[in-house]
Amino acid sequence: MEDVLRPVVVIGGAVLLTLILVWLTDRALRRIDAAHPETPLWGLLRRCRIPLQVALCAALLHGSFGQAGLKSADKHAAGIGQALTLVLIAAAAWLVIRAAAAIVESSYSRYAASGRDAARVRRVRTQVTLIQRVVTAVVIVVAAASMLLTFPAMRAVGTSMLASAGLLGIVAGIAAQSTLGNLFAGLQIAFGDMVRIGDTVVVDGEWGTVEEITLTFLTVRTWDERRITMPVSYFTGKPFENWSRGGAQMTGTVFFHLDHGAPVEKMRQRLLEILQECPEWDGRSWSLVVTDTTPSTIVVRALVTARDSDTLWTVRCEVRERMLEWLQAEHAYALPRISTSPAPLGTPVLDPGQEPGAKSARG
């Protein structure tokens, strides 16, 4: 009877103790979160319940498994202990990653709630995202190395591995040159404030918004909802347009090709009326001038402003459509026209390829 009850008590007690400790921890975090609503940290830390349960259970079983008295498992005691050690290391790494993510997300949420500069908030968001990815990668590498070192064979070959580390490092550096370049380029983008998540950029003639930045690649979402993925080294080695740097406010233009008789002064008055009725116009500036002339038309430029690139596009389209409707309805003569006239009678018809002034073969 003791052979049955002892393993049940030891293993069941470890599992029960794990559930009780995790429940108490979760309850304490819930109370702290209710008492401090100004920070989301304590609520975010509740996401660590599952890795905490696995880590505690693995640690308790690893410490008490030898007292269970399972005769059938004595032959595999070393293997079971090795497996529990690996589970404990993996669960601890999982717990550290979850806790680090909660701390980073809480810090960013508090900063974003109090920050008034949208550009700076996007900069901090880009930095904390890359920092979180670096921490995750470091924890995973350390956990994997710790798991490998639990095997005696790996410890035995450690000396030979260290002896060849110099040569392997050189070979790996040459093989991963582009990857390392993208890695350092990602860090340069994050802390050099070159481009941030949410910035409006133009790359290779494509206009879009930066949607994601990792250590190796960057994703731009275009206006037609396509995603352009490119290495981050592109933004450190080639020129690109960042419309959000230095403030999101923008100035745009609308060009009209009109007849020489177009009523420019009336167009100025109509432009102001259109802008005053357009909620997307920020009221900073506007103008309408003749910028060029040709033998048949004049070029009229309307200048408008908006708070960002998206609303600027809306303002430009609104001005273009309503101005053309007004011209067609009240000043149709101002629209460009092509003048034609019939050819005078008796004009000789040239043969294809015949020089002007030469006698026709039919003459």
Question: Helix and strand layout, with pairings?
Answer:
Layout: H1 2-35, H2 41-45, H3 49-64, H4 71-74, H5 77-114, H6 118-149, H7 152-156, H8 158-163, H9 165-175, H10 177-192, E1 200-203, E2 206-213, E3 217-222, E4 227-231, H11 233-237, E5 241-242, E6 250-258, H12 264-276, E7 281-293, E8 298-306, H13 309-330
Antiparallel strand pairs: 1-2, 1-5, 2-3, 3-4, 6-8, 7-8
Helix pairs in contact: 1-3, 3-5, 5-6, 6-10, 12-13
Explain this structure to me?
- Helices cover 57% and strands 15% of the residues.
- The protein folds into three domains: 2-114, no CATH class; 178-242, SH3 type barrels; 250-334, Alpha-Beta Plaits.
- The chain has 13 helices and eight strands.
- It is α+β, with helices and mostly antiparallel strands and 363 residues long.
- The chain has helices at residues 2-35, 41-45, 49-64, 71-74, 77-114, 118-149, 152-156, 158-163, 165-175, 177-192, 233-237, 264-276, 309-330, and strands spanning 200-203, 206-213, 217-222, 227-231, 241-242, 250-258, 281-293, 298-306.
- Strands 4-3-2-1-5 form a five-stranded antiparallel beta sheet.
- The relative contact order is 0.06.
- Mean pLDDT is 76; it is low at 158-168 and 170-177.
- A hairpin with a 3-residue loop joins strand 2 and strand 3 (217-222).
Helix fraction by DSSP (H/I, runs of at least 4): 55-70%
- Cα(first) to Cα(last) distance is 130 Å
User: How many H/I helices?
Assistant: 13
Q: Biggest sheet, in brief? A: 5 strands, antiparallel
Radius of gyration: 36 Å
Shape: elongated
Number of strands: 8
Helix/strand structural class:
alpha+beta
